[in-house]
Amino acid sequence: MIDINEHDFHKLDLNLLLVFTALLRERSVTRAAKRLYLGQPAMSASLARLRAFAGDDLFVRTARGMEPTAHALALAERLKPALEGLSTALFTDTAFDPASSDRTFALGMFDIGEVTLAPALLGALAAQAPRIRLALRPVDQANAVAQLEAGTLELAITDIGPTTGWICTKPLFKESFACMFDPKLVQVRIPISLQDYLAYPHLLTSFGGEFTGYVDDVLVERGLSRHVTMTTTRFSTLPFVLRRFRGIASLPGTAARELGSALGLEVSPLPFEVPAVGLHLVWHARHETDKGHQWLRDLVYRSCMRLAPPRRNRKVSASHPKARCD
């Protein structure tokens, strides 16, 4: 946090600090005015205002030119680090070298995103940025913006809805749904039929603990329903329960394929059309020009697109979709 009293600055035109530094450097009102592209009358008027604010002459005329007073020299000593730091902060393009950086980035995603994406990110970090650390944290559509605004997250991957304020988004891909089950316990033909899908009990991931979700809304529109036996807040719980439970779970297709392959579970398209969900990278605009954050966004974007559904899993080009900041 910056510990200043903003009201103190109302008393001072900060441009007068430039007048002060120019006079220190030139020791001449005429040369200082030329340095600042001011007329000499304007320069003299600014010096008068500066003297009134400081309560000191600051510069006195001598045979050698305008000499600073003791108060001016002491003031210059105190201002030097502040003004040089301000100049660096505002006008220096801060470089970022991933190979030597030791920054820690907080990245939010669903738990199933951690399962599918974390290995790719860690592999990329090992190759490009061995000292950078990632703090993966849970996030969902309901709390993503609040966490980004609070600064507890720097980047999120989520199915974000409409945003307000200084929030930037960049589309990744549209994620379709699939269902997953243990073929030893649920013995059905692939792709699963609607009759078989509705005949078995279901597991549901619900961040709020509800027993209905996105899939159920689609079923209701068709006059149908399924029996949900258990809900959990974590996608990663589902495959382990399914290995001992004669039932079905519906989840994003990318996650279903990854988990099914790893744990010997069967994956099938849903037997009815469910609109795909659009995933986005989301961040606060305060990070928009941060070189390190730009590098992170590019790394995560490329890693996500390599995990995209097959029909979209093309070679990632340099021409990414543009980000949008509200």
UniProtKB/TrEMBL annotation:
Keywords in alphabetical order: DNA-binding, Transcription, Transcription regulation
Domain of life of the source:
Bacteria
**HTH lysR-type domain boundaries:** 12-69
Coiled-coil spans are none
Q: Which GO terms describe its molecular function?
A: DNA binding; DNA-binding transcription factor activity
The similarity comment for this entry is: Belongs to the LysR transcriptional regulatory family.
Indicate what this protein is called per its UniProt record. Answer: LysR family transcriptional regulator
Lineage of the organism: Bacteria, Pseudomonadati, Pseudomonadota, Betaproteobacteria, Burkholderiales
